[in-house]
Amino acid sequence: MPVLLLVDGSSYLYRAFHALPDLRTSQGEPTGAIRGVLSMLRRLESDYKAEFRACVFDAKGKTFRDELYPEYKSHRPPMPDDLRAQIEPLHAAVQAEGWPLLAVEGVEADDVIGTLTRQAQERGWEVVISTGDKDLTQLVRPGVKWVNTMSEEVLDEAGVEEKFGVPPERIVDYLALVGDAVDNVPGVEKCGPKTAVKWLTEYGTLDNLVANADKVGGKVGENLRKHLDFLPLGKKLVTVATDVALPLELDALPARGDDKAALRALYERFEFRGWLKDLDGPGGSAPVRKDGGGARSANAAAPEASGAVAAVEATDPPAAPGAHRGSYVTILDWATFDAWLAKLDAAALVAFDTETTSLDPMAAQLVGMSFATVAGEAAYLPLAHRGPDVPAQLPFAEVLARLKPWLESDAHAKLGQNLKYDAHVLANHGIRLAGMAHDTLLESYVLESDKSHDMDSLAKRHLGLTTIPYTDVCGKGAKQIGFDEVALERASEYAAEDADITLRLHRTLWPQLEAVPALAALYRDVEMPAMQVLFDMERTGVLIDDFLLAQQSEELGRRLMALEREAHELAGQPFNLGSPKQLGEILFGKLGLPVVKKTATGQPSTDEEVLVQLSDDYPLPKLLLEHRGFAKLKSTYADKLPRMVNPKTGRVHTSFSQAVAVTGRLASSEPNLQNIPIRTAEGRRIRAAFIAPRDHVIVSADYSQIELRIMAHLSGDARLLEAFAHGEDVHRATASEVFGVTPAEVTSEQRRYSKVINFGLIYGMSAHGLAKNLGIDRAAAQGWIDRYFARYPGVADYMERIKGEAKAKGYVETVFGRRLYLPDLRAQQVGRRQGAERAAINAPMQGTAADLIKKAMIAVHGWLGASGLKSRLILQVHDELVLEVPRDELELIRRELPARMGGVAELAVPLLVEVGAGNNWDEAH
DNA sequence: CTGCTAGCATA
DNA sequence: GTATGCTAGCAGA
């Protein structure tokens, strides 16, 4: 089914002009809006394979709305000269890009789009309307969707209803009630979105509402009645016309190829240097213009055939959710395999994905692989599908052997979505994946770490496409089947789509990264290399003493039993100590202890803080605290870790997630090795079970006070910088300042207070939080905060500055330019907003620390590799690196490591690294 | 069997 | 007061 892509050029022109920086050529000609609109067209071109398309602009001349209502748009200020100056050149550029351009005198762009949409619908075509104007959502229908390429919002019927509360058919009713300030169309006074939706939900349509206007109560009801006379006119004004006379037919709008000569001239005039370069050679990120795809590409290869009507792709499957699917093939014979291998060898970049038997990277076995070299075209190579109806697949070993050179070649660039996983899968088959050039997971993460990065979400968000969810193919929960059991046709569809979508995603994400040099650098120089380091760390794993853990488990079990018995005696009845519900009934019901605080659901809380308070006056809470501590150690660590030992390697292989923490930190899971106990003696016994093999030691190197140092750097506070420059104990220095004594006179109590304050600063503390933590009243806590800020004015300034910056920009940055978006800064609820403000303070510090240690990992890993050392990185715990070191390398590592880690950046403070070594992780501290 | 809550381990 | 992941218990399928 052909796709018609309609772009509201006028709406984007205005928005680009106001939203984008004031770009100018050296002659002073404004070009910002031109560039903005053109890059949106390019993005659309790569996002949608549309056989027909048009870019529509408003034209001069009075429209029917002006006739109906002289005030229409009458309040608008005249168009800025800098905007007007860009219209003509933009029109020229749009046409040179191969976009049919429509500007119909006396007709607004909206009405042209409305009319073309109706015509296309009548022919059964699909329509994509790209605009920044929400009024056009009234045109959405099955097969017609609305996308805002600037905000990347995509709305279908359900989406419109979700966003506005009324279906597309009711949008005009809704607009007539609410009015349109932009176009100077008044609505019912005091009737906003909420009221309009309420009325339309109650009365169904505007007409019915009008018929029942006398029944509507309240002041707004009165306003409605006052407005009854105007409503029909208002509705006409907000209704997009679908029947205006157009000077041409749909068939006159095929997607054409670009006019290179014209583009070159225009780009030269606009001084778009990067795009000029793209014109010369097919750059890595240029939209697909060669062979294979659909009618659009075919025409692009032959610009002179611009009048030809696009042919419909014969291999397009019919189903709606897969409408984007191009020609996907399943490789089942050698001839097809050879043809694809030749393609892979020749391609500059190949999107690549594996299908496997398991989500556990160390256990997963290969079931198949998919490849894509051109958007819309992909192949699935099944290797190990099982089942009665499975056709013969090419022989596993032979295929792998023939693919191995390509897979292991650094010169053949691969692109994937979470390539670290694919690298593990291949490693399980003895293949060392090389040439990992791009990863859409990491691209998305660097661009917007607060969003989700799974392929289904990415496809929806960036391409407006609905992909096949994994659970649709394999089911979920207990009934989930392995990918090797999926019917081949279904598997092929799913797998090929994965590769195809990955490629398309890269084509839209990568240019976005390149547009912000700091982000591109972060992606290229930090995240991509870190992925390789993490892969090696995961693969190496850590050795644990499972016998020691088993002993501890038994001992913990005994002590838990004893504690339980005592607790039951004190309670006068047996109950489950691990059940907060039963515990609450005993403590606050039967024993009548005072309720200190409640949980989120209104239940009396029994958490640690509460039990600590109660244990002053009662015996049971103390037992419970001990029980809780031991139970956690036993179940989470002593019992769990031995079960996580990989039978093949005899070691524990955690999984590091590189794209979950919004601040840039890593996360460790299955098992989480970043939360191994350290605070209590009992807990440290767990840590002691992380051991080094024979003739090796565990080395731990951590950044000292990293976040406070970063705070000193970011704030530039003179006193704080000085304290670090002189290698002082910062908490003691803080105490000395705040309490007004010499450092030598600081008591341990004063130092403890200062430490809490320092941590509080990093977390964006409030007086309330500090008071709770120190067990003092709010006023006293505020007093300490005031004294701190008086002594460290640079820090106070910084806190204010960062909050202001966050509000202005919507995000904060790390020292290296990593962005954390904070949409909640504009939230309605005070609580959410304050939370976002605290996050704004914390994120640059936590995030910069994360950047630094990632750089350190890359530096250390590179150094170990380059010098042929056998020492291995095995863990990262946010400010600490853990290595397994052969004894004969210990001296060298001890000597070199601090400088390697400390030298990754020049901050205004020295980066101090403390190194320890021992037979186990506990001893290494 | 799944999804939620409470609680708690780390930096 | 920031950022995570995992466990047991429990309610509702």
TrEMBL record:
Keywords: DNA damage, DNA repair, DNA replication, DNA-binding, DNA-directed DNA polymerase, Exonuclease, Hydrolase, Nuclease, Nucleotidyltransferase, Transferase. It is an enzyme of class 2 (transferase). It comes from the Bacteria. This is DNA polymerase I. Belongs to the DNA polymerase type-A family. The keyword Ion transport does not apply. It catalyses: DNA(n) + a 2'-deoxyribonucleoside 5'-triphosphate = DNA(n+1) + diphosphate. NCBIfam families: pola (TIGR00593), PRK05755.1 (NF004397). InterPro entries: 3'-5'_exonuclease_dom, 5-3_exonucl_a-hlix_arch_N, 5-3_exonuclease, 5-3_exonuclease_C_sf, DNA-dir_DNA_pol_A_CS, DNA-dir_DNA_pol_A_palm_dom, DNA/RNA_pol_sf, DNA_polI_H3TH. It comes from Aromatoleum toluvorans. The gene is polA. Its EC number is 2.7.7.7. It holds the Pfam family DNA_pol_A. One of its GO terms (molecular function) is DNA-directed DNA polymerase activity. SMART domains: 35EXOc (SM00474), 53EXOc (SM00475), HhH2 (SM00279), POLAc (SM00482). Residues 1-256 form the 5'-3' exonuclease domain. Single-chain monomer with multiple functions. In addition to polymerase activity, this DNA polymerase exhibits 3'-5' and 5'-3' exonuclease activity. Residues 328-514 form the 3'-5' exonuclease domain. Gene3D superfamilies: 3.30.70.370, 5' to 3' exonuclease, C-terminal subdomain, 5'-nuclease, Ribonuclease H-like superfamily/Ribonuclease H, Taq DNA Polymerase, Chain T, domain 4. Residues 683-889 form the DNA-directed DNA polymerase family A palm domain.
